[in-house]
Amino acid sequence: MLTSLKGKSVLVTGASSGIGLGIARVFASQGARVAVSARHQDKLDQVVKALAAEGLAVTGYTADVSDPQAVRRLANAVGMAQGGIDVLCANAGIFPSAPLESMSPEDWDLVMNTNAKGSFLCVQACLPYLREAEYGRVILTSSITGPITGFPGWAHYGASKAAQLGFMRTAAIELAADGITVNAVLPGNILTEGLQEMGEDYLEGMCASIPLKCLGTVEDIGHAALFFASKEAGYITGQSLVVDGGQILPESLAALE
Questions:
Q1: Start and end of every Ketoreductase domain (predicted)?
Q2: Which one is catalytic: 129, 135, 157, 235?
Protein backbone atom coordinates (compact mmCIF):
# COMPACT_ATOMS: atom_id res chain seq x y z
CA MET A 1 0.00 0.00 0.00
CA LEU A 2 1.23 3.47 -0.89
CA THR A 3 1.02 6.25 1.67
CA SER A 4 -2.29 8.05 1.20
CA LEU A 5 -2.34 11.23 -0.87
CA LYS A 6 -5.55 12.33 0.84
CA GLY A 7 -5.56 16.10 1.21
CA LYS A 8 -2.54 16.63 -1.04
CA SER A 9 -2.88 19.48 -3.54
CA VAL A 10 -2.56 18.31 -7.14
CA LEU A 11 -2.60 20.32 -10.37
CA VAL A 12 -3.26 18.46 -13.63
CA THR A 13 -2.88 20.44 -16.86
CA GLY A 14 -4.59 19.50 -20.10
CA ALA A 15 -7.28 17.71 -18.12
CA SER A 16 -10.42 18.42 -20.13
CA SER A 17 -10.25 15.01 -21.82
CA GLY A 18 -8.09 11.97 -22.47
CA ILE A 19 -5.06 11.19 -20.35
CA GLY A 20 -5.32 14.36 -18.29
CA LEU A 21 -8.87 13.52 -17.29
CA GLY A 22 -7.79 10.00 -16.39
CA ILE A 23 -4.98 11.32 -14.20
CA ALA A 24 -7.36 13.72 -12.47
CA ARG A 25 -9.88 10.94 -11.85
CA VAL A 26 -7.27 8.65 -10.29
CA PHE A 27 -5.89 11.33 -7.95
CA ALA A 28 -9.35 12.54 -6.95
CA SER A 29 -10.41 8.96 -6.20
CA GLN A 30 -7.51 8.78 -3.74
CA GLY A 31 -8.76 11.79 -1.82
CA ALA A 32 -6.37 14.38 -3.23
CA ARG A 33 -7.54 17.95 -3.76
CA VAL A 34 -7.36 18.17 -7.53
CA ALA A 35 -7.27 21.25 -9.72
CA VAL A 36 -7.66 20.70 -13.45
CA SER A 37 -6.77 23.15 -16.19
CA ALA A 38 -7.46 23.47 -19.89
CA ARG A 39 -7.86 26.22 -22.46
CA HIS A 40 -11.63 26.14 -22.76
CA GLN A 41 -14.03 26.89 -19.90
CA ASP A 42 -16.94 24.95 -21.39
CA LYS A 43 -14.92 21.73 -21.50
CA LEU A 44 -13.68 22.29 -17.97
CA ASP A 45 -17.25 22.75 -16.78
CA GLN A 46 -18.18 19.43 -18.36
CA VAL A 47 -15.26 17.68 -16.66
CA VAL A 48 -16.07 19.11 -13.23
CA LYS A 49 -19.72 18.10 -13.66
CA ALA A 50 -18.88 14.60 -14.93
CA LEU A 51 -16.48 13.87 -12.09
CA ALA A 52 -18.95 15.27 -9.55
CA ALA A 53 -21.47 12.74 -10.85
CA GLU A 54 -18.91 10.06 -9.94
CA GLY A 55 -18.60 11.51 -6.45
CA LEU A 56 -15.25 13.15 -7.19
CA ALA A 57 -14.62 16.83 -6.51
CA VAL A 58 -12.23 18.80 -8.72
CA THR A 59 -11.84 22.50 -9.44
CA GLY A 60 -11.37 23.89 -12.95
CA TYR A 61 -9.08 26.70 -14.13
CA THR A 62 -8.63 27.98 -17.67
CA ALA A 63 -5.07 28.48 -18.87
CA ASP A 64 -2.97 28.24 -22.02
CA VAL A 65 0.24 26.53 -20.90
CA SER A 66 2.25 28.21 -23.68
CA ASP A 67 1.52 31.64 -22.15
CA PRO A 68 3.92 32.48 -19.28
CA GLN A 69 1.57 34.97 -17.62
CA ALA A 70 -1.39 32.59 -17.84
CA VAL A 71 0.65 29.81 -16.27
CA ARG A 72 1.80 32.02 -13.40
CA ARG A 73 -1.80 33.05 -12.75
CA LEU A 74 -2.83 29.40 -12.79
CA ALA A 75 -0.15 28.32 -10.30
CA ASN A 76 -0.91 31.19 -7.95
CA ALA A 77 -4.67 30.64 -8.11
CA VAL A 78 -4.33 26.93 -7.35
CA GLY A 79 -1.68 27.50 -4.70
CA MET A 80 -3.81 30.04 -2.87
CA ALA A 81 -7.07 28.11 -3.18
CA GLN A 82 -5.61 24.75 -2.12
CA GLY A 83 -3.01 25.93 0.37
CA GLY A 84 -0.09 25.07 -1.87
CA ILE A 85 0.79 22.60 -4.62
CA ASP A 86 2.26 19.23 -3.71
CA VAL A 87 2.04 17.53 -7.09
CA LEU A 88 2.21 18.94 -10.62
CA CYS A 89 1.10 16.67 -13.43
CA ALA A 90 2.29 18.59 -16.51
CA ASN A 91 0.14 16.75 -19.01
CA ALA A 92 -1.07 19.38 -21.49
CA GLY A 93 -0.13 18.48 -25.05
CA ILE A 94 -1.30 18.51 -28.63
CA PHE A 95 -0.56 16.18 -31.54
CA PRO A 96 -1.71 17.57 -34.89
CA SER A 97 -0.36 15.66 -37.86
CA ALA A 98 1.70 17.26 -40.63
CA PRO A 99 4.08 15.64 -43.13
CA LEU A 100 7.64 16.90 -42.79
CA GLU A 101 7.68 18.14 -46.40
CA SER A 102 4.74 20.50 -45.85
CA MET A 103 5.15 21.24 -42.13
CA SER A 104 5.34 24.99 -41.59
CA PRO A 105 7.47 26.75 -38.96
CA GLU A 106 4.18 27.78 -37.37
CA ASP A 107 3.11 24.12 -37.16
CA TRP A 108 6.40 23.28 -35.45
CA ASP A 109 6.24 26.19 -33.00
CA LEU A 110 2.64 25.47 -32.02
CA VAL A 111 3.47 21.94 -30.90
CA MET A 112 6.79 22.79 -29.27
CA ASN A 113 5.31 25.76 -27.41
CA THR A 114 2.51 23.67 -25.93
CA ASN A 115 4.28 20.40 -25.26
CA ALA A 116 7.88 21.32 -24.38
CA LYS A 117 7.78 24.99 -23.44
CA GLY A 118 4.50 24.44 -21.61
CA SER A 119 6.10 21.81 -19.36
CA PHE A 120 8.95 24.17 -18.51
CA LEU A 121 6.60 27.08 -17.77
CA CYS A 122 4.36 24.97 -15.52
CA VAL A 123 7.25 23.60 -13.49
CA GLN A 124 8.82 27.04 -13.12
CA ALA A 125 5.54 28.66 -12.04
CA CYS A 126 4.78 25.93 -9.47
CA LEU A 127 8.27 25.90 -7.95
CA PRO A 128 7.54 28.24 -5.02
CA TYR A 129 4.72 25.96 -3.92
CA LEU A 130 6.53 22.68 -4.60
CA ARG A 131 9.43 23.89 -2.46
CA GLU A 132 7.06 24.48 0.46
CA ALA A 133 5.46 21.03 0.14
CA GLU A 134 6.33 18.17 2.46
CA TYR A 135 7.68 16.48 -0.65
CA GLY A 136 7.18 18.05 -4.08
CA ARG A 137 6.45 15.91 -7.10
CA VAL A 138 6.53 16.74 -10.82
CA ILE A 139 5.20 14.19 -13.31
CA LEU A 140 5.51 14.93 -17.02
CA THR A 141 3.36 13.20 -19.62
CA SER A 142 5.78 12.42 -22.43
CA SER A 143 5.27 9.61 -24.98
CA ILE A 144 6.98 6.63 -26.55
CA THR A 145 6.77 8.65 -29.78
CA GLY A 146 9.94 10.71 -29.98
CA PRO A 147 11.99 9.31 -27.10
CA ILE A 148 11.76 5.70 -28.38
CA THR A 149 9.68 5.40 -31.56
CA GLY A 150 8.60 7.53 -34.50
CA PHE A 151 5.43 7.92 -36.53
CA PRO A 152 4.83 9.68 -39.87
CA GLY A 153 3.39 13.16 -39.49
CA TRP A 154 4.60 13.62 -35.94
CA ALA A 155 8.14 14.97 -36.35
CA HIS A 156 7.25 18.04 -34.29
CA TYR A 157 5.34 16.00 -31.70
CA GLY A 158 8.16 13.47 -31.36
CA ALA A 159 10.72 16.23 -30.98
CA SER A 160 8.64 17.91 -28.27
CA LYS A 161 8.24 14.68 -26.31
CA ALA A 162 11.96 13.92 -26.49
CA ALA A 163 12.66 17.48 -25.38
CA GLN A 164 10.57 16.92 -22.26
CA LEU A 165 12.94 14.16 -21.18
CA GLY A 166 16.01 16.32 -21.69
CA PHE A 167 14.36 18.99 -19.59
CA MET A 168 13.37 16.42 -16.97
CA ARG A 169 16.92 15.20 -16.36
CA THR A 170 18.40 18.61 -15.67
CA ALA A 171 15.35 19.76 -13.71
CA ALA A 172 15.64 16.66 -11.53
CA ILE A 173 19.26 17.55 -10.70
CA GLU A 174 18.50 21.20 -9.98
CA LEU A 175 15.46 20.52 -7.81
CA ALA A 176 16.81 17.56 -5.86
CA ALA A 177 18.18 19.81 -3.12
CA ASP A 178 14.61 20.99 -2.48
CA GLY A 179 13.34 17.43 -2.13
CA ILE A 180 11.40 17.71 -5.41
CA THR A 181 11.42 14.75 -7.77
CA VAL A 182 10.83 15.06 -11.51
CA ASN A 183 9.81 12.02 -13.52
CA ALA A 184 7.94 11.20 -16.71
CA VAL A 185 5.34 8.71 -17.87
CA LEU A 186 5.68 7.59 -21.49
CA PRO A 187 2.29 6.37 -22.74
CA GLY A 188 1.97 4.12 -25.73
CA ASN A 189 -1.36 3.90 -27.53
CA ILE A 190 -3.97 4.88 -24.97
CA LEU A 191 -7.66 4.84 -25.85
CA THR A 192 -8.57 8.53 -25.88
CA GLU A 193 -10.88 10.71 -27.94
CA GLY A 194 -7.91 11.81 -30.03
CA LEU A 195 -6.87 8.25 -30.79
CA GLN A 196 -10.40 7.26 -31.70
CA GLU A 197 -10.45 10.05 -34.27
CA MET A 198 -7.66 8.26 -36.14
CA GLY A 199 -10.14 5.58 -37.19
CA GLU A 200 -10.83 1.91 -36.67
CA ASP A 201 -8.08 0.74 -39.05
CA TYR A 202 -5.47 2.57 -36.98
CA LEU A 203 -6.85 1.21 -33.71
CA GLU A 204 -6.97 -2.35 -34.99
CA GLY A 205 -3.45 -2.09 -36.41
CA MET A 206 -2.12 -0.79 -33.12
CA CYS A 207 -3.82 -3.52 -31.12
CA ALA A 208 -2.19 -6.10 -33.40
CA SER A 209 1.26 -4.60 -32.72
CA ILE A 210 0.92 -4.66 -28.92
CA PRO A 211 1.87 -7.89 -27.11
CA LEU A 212 -1.01 -7.48 -24.65
CA LYS A 213 -3.34 -7.11 -27.69
CA CYS A 214 -5.25 -4.13 -26.35
CA LEU A 215 -4.97 -0.38 -26.01
CA GLY A 216 -4.23 1.17 -22.65
CA THR A 217 -6.73 3.16 -20.62
CA VAL A 218 -6.29 6.70 -19.35
CA GLU A 219 -6.44 5.30 -15.83
CA ASP A 220 -3.36 3.18 -16.60
CA ILE A 221 -1.43 6.42 -17.01
CA GLY A 222 -3.11 7.90 -13.96
CA HIS A 223 -1.91 5.04 -11.77
CA ALA A 224 1.65 5.40 -13.08
CA ALA A 225 1.53 9.10 -12.21
CA LEU A 226 0.09 8.22 -8.79
CA PHE A 227 3.10 6.02 -8.07
CA PHE A 228 5.57 8.77 -9.01
CA ALA A 229 3.62 11.15 -6.74
CA SER A 230 3.78 8.83 -3.77
CA LYS A 231 6.00 9.16 -0.73
CA GLU A 232 7.37 5.71 -1.54
CA ALA A 233 8.76 6.98 -4.88
CA GLY A 234 10.86 9.59 -3.12
CA TYR A 235 14.20 8.05 -4.18
CA ILE A 236 13.24 8.01 -7.87
CA THR A 237 13.96 11.11 -9.93
CA GLY A 238 14.91 11.92 -13.50
CA GLN A 239 13.40 8.64 -14.68
CA SER A 240 10.82 7.64 -17.27
CA LEU A 241 8.26 4.84 -17.10
CA VAL A 242 6.95 3.32 -20.32
CA VAL A 243 3.28 2.31 -20.15
CA ASP A 244 2.54 0.72 -23.51
CA GLY A 245 1.44 -2.90 -23.11
CA GLY A 246 4.82 -4.01 -24.43
CA GLN A 247 4.46 -2.18 -27.76
CA ILE A 248 8.13 -1.22 -28.06
CA LEU A 249 9.40 -4.77 -27.40
CA PRO A 250 8.91 -6.72 -30.68
CA GLU A 251 11.46 -6.30 -33.47
CA SER A 252 8.63 -6.86 -35.94
CA LEU A 253 5.06 -8.14 -36.10
CA ALA A 254 6.53 -11.56 -36.81
CA ALA A 255 7.59 -11.70 -33.17
CA LEU A 256 3.93 -11.64 -32.16
CA GLU A 257 2.79 -14.45 -34.43
A1: 8-188
A2: 157
